[in-house]
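Re: your question from the hallway

Yes, I did run it. Sequences:
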Amino acid sequence: MSATTAQRRNRIWRYGSLLPAALLLIVLTIYPVFNLVGLSLSDVEWIDGRADTSFTGLDNFEQLFQHEPVYWAGVRNTIVFAVCAVTAQMIFGFAMALAARRASGFGRVALTTIFLMPIVIPPIVIGAMWRLLLGRDFGAVNTLLGYVGLGPVDFLGNPDVALASVIMVDIWHWTPFVFLLMLTGLESLDDEVFEAARFDVKTNWQELRYVTIPLMIPTILITAGLRIVLTFKVFDEVYLLTAGGPGTATEVINFSIYRTFFAQDRVGVGSAMSLLTLVAVAVLIVAVNLVIRARRKAKEIAE
Amino acid sequence: MAYLTLEKLRKAYGKHVVIPEIDLELEAGEFVCLVGPSGSGKSTLLRMIAGLESISGGRVTVAGADITGTDPSDRDMAMVFQSYALYPHMTVRDNMSFALRMRNEDKALIQERVAEAVEMLDLHGLEDRKPSALSGGQRQRVAMGRCIVRKPKLFLFDEPLSNLDAKLRTATRHQIRRLHDQLGATSIFVTHDQVEAMTMADRIALLDHGEVMQIGTPQELYLNPKNRFTAGFLGSPEMNFFSGTAEMAENGLHVRASDSLFLPASDARLKRLSDRLVPGQTVEVGVRPEHFVIADAPGPDTLSLPVEGQEWLGHEAFVFGRIGKQEVGVRVASGAAADDTLPRTGSAVPLTVLEDTWHVFDPETGETLSL
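Structure:
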């Protein structure tokens, strides 16, 4: 029958078209994860340029949980980093999107262009730039502070402010990303609903609180989730600005892993750290997903 | 003193003038339709009254108060939008009570008003649904409910029926008009649909290129159009227009082009026309399809129409043909509307015009010469 031939061809096409993506996923993601699990349970010695791997059970994890205070300082810093940076980025990005949406014509193009500038600058340039700006002796920021009789503040060298400085640079760097997603979200909303709101609300705050934000919740959730996960991957900014210092003041998870794995050649412990981080981030993603799905379901029930 | 007045209202986007200057007065309790083709400025005018569109010049007053520069939320008006513009994240109840809640009205009052609106609009059992779980007609009713609970000074409608199917549209038309009377409201209704305007309005304001072509009751506009635009806009099928040179005769007017058309007139009408018309002047005459009569036999005063098609609608029927390049539609008298007596395609029917029903327009200005 021609129908079944067509159906079979259809099926071959359907699975065949998935194959390249599936292969890539297996080679580049699934295999490395299994490899990571293997390494985290092993001790790797380098002898004559060859890896000598021996199975050591949970030794690496014991080491990680008992004797790696730097990693745990990194965990603490990363959480602080994620909460502070993402919160600020969400607030600023949303506010900027609201401003850009209200602006018209040339003002809007100008605002959007300026707001998006940081996102197109390569991280290495950002690191160099902010290092220069925040430098203790010759930095532009301290020069400006000097004019008003303040400082100098050792933004990157003082353990009390170093983390805040790095977070500040991250906020500067990634707010445009949030801005862009928020602006797209705002623009996809129905204009007539906002015109109706102009009859109903008495203040801009009421419009924001009862109309704009509720309608933006899906965009807000997805953006925040994305930003949190991406913040756990922060590396370049820290590496370029403070390299984790002073002390463990700006240590972040990725930096610990990098140092343990590559600088100290402790492949087993480094793998254990990676695996732990991977699981934590995976749990986070699943949690965000569950929240979004629960909301969608609640909506369907309401309807 | 009129309830709503627009004085020399003007709207321009830079050099592009949408509304050059409009004066309009509404009495309290009136239902006025703004009608016109797209681009006539009818929606812009409504949005200026609402405060959604800035006003480039002139004044708007409601009940004696100048509201020209005020925000929509301070104008005490309510609007039904084309897409209904319900808040998708709120239930029907919350949608309707939103404006009152934002004004910190008394909870008991809000509840009472919402209950009233639900009753009037027959929305029982839907109070806790979200708009996405409602049909088009229900959404439209919720949008009206949102206006009703506010008891506004003015109801504004921006083509609220255009998203409904034909059957529902007729029913909703009646419902809106009934609500208007029941509430003693004052309403402005924008539409491009002449049937909506004719059936609902106390008065129609017909707009073209931002200017009022004519304002009056539906009967005035239909029976005594002041200009060619009004005559051509209202009525379906459209009024038939012929141009030619006018010649007075004893009991009517001859309009001569390639064919001659005889328009019988009463003495009074003929007298008025002869004061205005120069013999041999070129004029444009308009005759509605229902003002033709199919004569028994061709004669000196009949116009022969070669039939090219019919439209049989049950309660009435039309035949269409062309005289010269002019498309002509004629309503067949109800007795002859049965399918087998309808003039056949290919045959020619002799037409006469009913006395005094026709219109004469100046071909230059489009103004009527026959009123």
